[in-house]
Amino acid sequence: MQGPTEPLPSTPRRRGAGPESSTPPPRTPRPDHGTGPMPPPRSEPPVRTRSRAARVGRVALALVSVAVLLVTGYAWTVYSALNGNLSTSDVLAGPKSADGATDILLVGLDSRTDARGNPLPRNVLDALNAGESDGESNTDTMILLRVPDDPSRPTTAVSIPRDSYVNIPGQGKHKINSAYASGAAAERARLSAQGVTGPDLNRESDDAGRRLLAETIGQLTGVSIDHYAEINLAGFAAITTAVGGVPVCLSAPVDDAYSGARFPAGPQTLEGAPALAFVRQRHGLPRGDLDRVVRQQAFLAGLSHQVLSAGTLADPAKLSDLLGAVGQFVVVDPGWDLLAFAGQVKGINGGQIEFRTMPVGRSDLSTPSDGDAVQVDPALVQRFFHDLATGPAPADPSAPAAPSPSQLTVDVQNATSRTGLGAAVQDRLDNDGMVPGTLGNTGSRRSSVVTAATAADADRVAQALGGVATEVDPSLPAGRVSVVLGRDYTGPTSSDGSSAPSDAAKPPGDDAPDAAPADTGPPITADGVPCVS
Q1: Would I find Transmembrane among this entry's keywords (predicted)?
Q2: Of all helices (H) and strands (E), which one includes residue 356?
């Protein structure tokens, strides 16, 4: 068993980050990492009468020789060392189905252990401004990377907002960032009862959390996840330092005590603990976690450019530091042949990776036990991921146009004990442009349902209510929709008690930024450094 993780530098550097930063110390010269043979003695100066073509040919031959040396010598050596030192987790169960892409789940974990289950030293956590642990490992970052089989289509990294309200297998509907913690906690209790302790307990519990998270995301997106990679707080900081920092740009200065993010406006280069604070901040941002997602995308675009650039891949010292950080802090699935994957993506440069956000709805969805969450339509999410790999399906010219909200009259029946729920839901649909119909109470029932004469009409209302089940009843008049609110209803304006929903207390005309479906904006690429909130 490997011993405790070595501490990171206690004062990671931030370069170009404004007057409050002290001048960084000069970078310590790196040791010679060369492993190949000594170069041959320099040849005599060329005879001046040799042709220019001969000189060009000799230079080309030298370049090819260097490339061969790197690939067959140093690069193979470091790859072999990394491959033998990587931590693996048997995350992905069952056969993989061909869905037009290689799909990789990338997870950033708020974890206080390294890849082998050893606790991170207190001084490392303090240097990273990690704060106190609540005993659970929550997923701060979830990105599904789609590498299409069709090389003409771009590789896309899709961020999944951590507050997305989704079905977690065996748990019901909760925020997606709790899937890992739920799976790990259940396994920890089982293993503890069997007397398992220490790093083994941490590692096996985390494996269960990873499996539940991967299953949850696969179910949500309709994607067959091929590979898994996970990194924790210390690993993220170490990788940013290994590549020499990452360029970012802020549209306004920030000062956040929760994350330790204190940066001026404008371009700057971040590494270590400041880089971690940059991607973790969500307090004080206009859209909270959704703005943090954009921060992470901009940062990862810059990191991708740094890693894929010749300045990193052709620098043995940087590459060695990078692979060392990966080996110490990254967990991957055991079936991932990294060398083969590198060959698959060798033609990708930073500008060919798009960073996008999974489509989501409202960010003020009230839930019974998870507070406000981000609304998600699984059908829309699955179409989005399908289109990334193969393009949108051709439109059916015979398909009817989606109904306009003003063409729908909605009757609402409250089948719960929550006084005022029906009126609040009808008000919400009225605000969405639909015509209020009848309103009343009915006998208690568990399940909510939306019924209409056509599937399109029912789907339009169901989506506005957070994905309620639908039924088609051709006997209903065209444009007339029936909504029955059951005890399972957790859509917009619902609340856990009998009091009026929180949006009812908003003054008329109060259109808070989080009261509308989220605008995920255009994709971010590594071509340039975008300024973000």
Answers
A1: yes
A2: strand 353-357
Please tell me the total count of domains within the chain.
2
Query: Token pair of 267, please?
Result: 């371009």
What's the token pair of residue 104? 């990789």
Residue 245 backbone class (left: φ over 0; alpha: ψ -120 to 50; beta: rest): left
Range of the domain at 239: 88-392
For residue 398, being part of any structural domain is answered with no
Q: What is the pLDDT of residues 221-248, one digit of tens each?
A: 999 999 998 888 788 888 888 888 888 8
Tokens representing residue 278 in the block: 């940059």
Does residue 287 contact residue 363 with C-beta atoms inside 8 Å? yes
Q: Residue 432 belongs to a domain with what CATH number?
A: 3.30.70.2390
DSSP one-letter code for 374: B
In DSSP notation, 205-238 reads HHHHHHHHHHHHHHHHH-----EEEEEEHHHHHH
Of 371, 382, 303, the C-alpha closest to 295 is 303
For the chain, how far is it from start to end, CA to CA, in angstroms? 43
| Same structural domain, 233 and 287 | yes
Nearest CA among 392, 389, 385 for reference residue 151? 389
Q: Residue 414 and residue 39: Cα distance in Å, rounded?
A: 82
Please tell me the predicted confidence (pLDDT) of residue 229: 87
- Measured in residues, the chain has a length of 533
Q: Tell me the pLDDT of the chain averaged across its residues.
A: 73
Whole-angstrom CA distances from 17 to 111, 305, 307 are 27, 20, 21
Residues 6+ apart with CB under 8 A from 410: 426, 429, 434, 435, 436, 437, 461, 481, 482, 483
Two tokens, residue 28:
């310590």
Do 378 and 416 lie in one domain? The reply is no
C-alpha distance from residue 407 to each of 410, 436, 451, 482 (Å): 10, 11, 15, 14
pLDDT tens for 384-408 read 998 888 766 555 555 566 678 888 9
Q: In the numeric block, which tokens belong to residue 526?
A: 């590594």
| The amino acid at 329 | F
Give CA–CA dist 380/238, Å, rounded: 37
**HEC profile of 320-344:** HHHHHHHHHHEEECCCCCHHHHHHH
Q: Name residues whose C-beta falls within 8 Å of residue 427's C-beta, 6 or more positions apart in sequence.
A: 493, 504
For residue 456 the two structure tokens come to: 């399109």
- 271 by Cβ neighbours in 10 Å (0-12 / 13-18 / 19+) ranks as buried
**Tokens 């896309």 found at:** 156
Q: Rounded distance, CA 11 to CA 262, Å?
A: 15
Count of C-beta atoms within a 10 Å radius of residue 222:
15
Residue 58 has φ and ψ, to the nearest 5°, of -65, -40
| Bridge partners of residue 172, in order along the sequence | 168
In tens, the pLDDT along 149-187 reads 887 778 888 999 999 999 999 989 999 999 999 999 999
Question: Are residues 425 and 299 part of one domain?
Answer: no
Residue 433 pLDDT more than 70?
yes
Of all residues in the chain, the percent with pLDDT exceeding 70 is 66
Q: Tens digit of pLDDT for each residue in 28-75?
A: 333 333 434 344 444 444 444 444 444 433 333 333 333 333 333 344
Q: Which helix (DSSP H) or strand (DSSP E) does residue 141 occupy?
A: strand 138-148
